[in-house]
Amino acid sequence: MELSRNKSYVHTPGNEPFIGLTMYELLKVRVEKHPDREMHVFVDDNERITFAEYRRKIIDLAAGFLNIGFSKGDCIAVLGGNHMEWPLIIGAAQSLGVIVVCLQIGNTLKTLKEILLKTSCKALFITRSPETLYSDVCTMIAELNTSTVNNLHSIDIPNLKMVIAAGANNQSGTISFECISVRGCEEKVCEAARKVTIDDVSFMAMTSGTTGIPKLAAYSFFQMINGSEMLPTIFDNQVNILACAGNTAYAPSFLFGHVGPLVLGSTSVYPSPMYSFEKFVQAVQIERCTSFMLMINGIIDLAYSPINEKYDLSSLKAGFCGGSLIPAAVVTHLKKTLGICALIDYGHTEVNSVCCLRVDDKPDTYTTVGKPFPHVEVQIVNESGITLEVGKTGEIWVRSPFAFKGYYDDVKKTNEVVTKDGWFQTGDLGKLNSEGYLTVVGRIQDIIIKNGQNIHPSVVEIVLSSHPSVKKAKVVGIPDYRVGEDVCACVVVHGCETVNEEDIHKYCVEKVQKSYIPTYVLMFDSFPLGISRKVDQRKLQKMAIARIDIPAAPYADD
């Protein structure tokens, strides 16, 4: 690692050469090395698959894709819970150069429709659960339940030609996932796979947008594969069994859960279709998982939940927290009570989820997010983009060969966050010490980070302000030890209105995605103003916190 003389710039050189293979090519290499090692295990469904079995299945599925009209550059959107069909669909699509667009459960149907339109998706795939997915999709695509198979004509989403569904969601108008595969066509698939290059887009991940419409970060095969290659240095090249508790649609889960096995030969274990902490610890005990990926609420449960006493978690050695910083007291508690090293990481969807990681076990580094990954550069700059001295606070900029190609079909938005020299402007405030450790101290813009998801207050404020009884609306973050921050709506109503907190909450349920729905709604006569006569956001937040009975963190006295 190189830290420039008294400058807040650090670069970690890489020792390993880059991998110049596509997913399909890398899978072939992995099968030659470990054909009978398990690649994916879905505990709740009692389904597991080895590398060799996985390759056979995705070749047959890819052949079926070719038969129903897929070709390189097409897009397929995937929506649903964690089931075996997820990695199979991904593997088959990427073999042919079909771009996977990961949709997140919890987004409004309006948002999902906008993404399908933006990406000109040829197909939408829905997993076997939740079993309400089919009815939700019928609400979004009115023509589906009256369409014939593979002959969808949607007025609102004209490029969408088919909906593929698994299990109970395979209903009228959908193509059965179980019936697509075609055997005996490996050469046909290989011929199509040879046309795919390492620089082709393989995957698109949703990332938050200030307008309420998520942007789509596009990644090439090179970026996804080499962004995972640094993991062997974390786990000392041992066979790793990773418990993936998060939904596969999220970029970190995709990177570690799907790409990780191909690069490292690891096994990904999915405890349940949707997150359940008890299912997670059950899976750890049954499968003897060595590592994990959890959101902050799961980390807190792992550290303090009495459920842990019922299970043998001794196989766990280390784990990641996606999207949120882990309090130092929790890191210490996990190490002291369970012998688990909580790997504090930092990143954004745009920089391939993780760009810095604390892997050493020195207590004086627990409040940092560690050092940059190999090949990654980090600098701290002022408002003019000038590199600051070591120890000074400024905006964190990251440059990485694994960073995204850009926002799909949105050059303007890409140029707003990526400089002409390739630096991604994170919008986070931080500082570097003389050893190259990065500490994150805040955000430039007002943002609420709830369980790893970025929530822009303006999105909820626009919805609140559209309510006929609301005169003014502001949204602030409320500290919450389980999810980091929670959403609080502060509302001033017109004088003669009798609207209450419950009315406001119900109004939001129908208009914003699940994570944006305010947990708290507080009514105010007026908002505090600053010198400029604008709402004093910080003072309003303090007033809101004073009115809420916030549960105490179990680690407050550690």
Task: Write a concise synopsis of the structure shown.
With 558 residues, the chain is α/β, with parallel strands linked by helices. It has 16 helices and 28 strands. The strands form five sheets. A nine-stranded mixed sheet has the order 4-3-13-12-14-15-16-17-18, sandwiched between helices. An eight-stranded mixed sheet has the order 9-8-7-5-6-10-11-21. A six-stranded antiparallel sheet has the order 1-2-19-20-22-23, with no helix packed on it.
What does the model show?
Helix content is about 30%, strand content about 25%. It is an alpha/beta fold and about 550 residues long. Among the domains are: about 25-35 and about 50-215, Rossmann fold, CATH 3.40.50; about 450-545, 2-Layer Sandwich (GMP Synthetase, Chain A, domain 3). It has a 9-stranded mixed sheet with strand order 4-3-13-12-14-15-16-17-18, sandwiched between helices. Strand 27 (about 485-495), helix 15 (about 500-510) and strand 28 form a beta-alpha-beta unit. Helix 2 crosses helix 3, helix 7 (about 220-230) packs across helix 9 (about 250-265) and helix 11 (about 295-305) crosses helix 12 (about 330-340). The longest helix has 17 residues, at about 50-65. The two termini are about 35 Å apart. The model has no long low-confidence stretch (mean pLDDT about 90).
List the helices and strands and how they pair.
Blueprint: E1 2-3, E2 9-11, H1 23-33, E3 38-42, E4 47-50, H2 51-67, E5 75-79, H3 85-95, E6 99-102, H4 109-118, E7 123-126, H5 133-140, E8 162-165, E9 175-176, H6 186-193, E10 201-207, E11 215-220, H7 221-228, H8 231-235, E12 241-244, H9 251-264, E13 267-270, H10 277-287, E14 291-294, H11 296-304, E15 318-321, H12 328-338, E16 341-346, E17 356-358, E18 371-372, E19 377-381, E20 394-399, E21 406-407, H13 411-417, E22 424-432, E23 438-443, E24 448-450, E25 453-455, H14 457-465, E26 470-480, E27 484-493, H15 501-509, E28 520-523, H16 537-547
Parallel strand pairs: 3-13, 5-6, 5-7, 6-10, 7-8, 8-9, 12-13, 12-14, 14-15, 15-16, 27-28
Antiparallel strand pairs: 1-2, 2-19, 3-4, 10-11, 11-21, 16-17, 17-18, 19-20, 20-22, 22-23, 24-25, 26-27
Helix pairs in contact: 2-3, 4-5, 7-9, 11-12
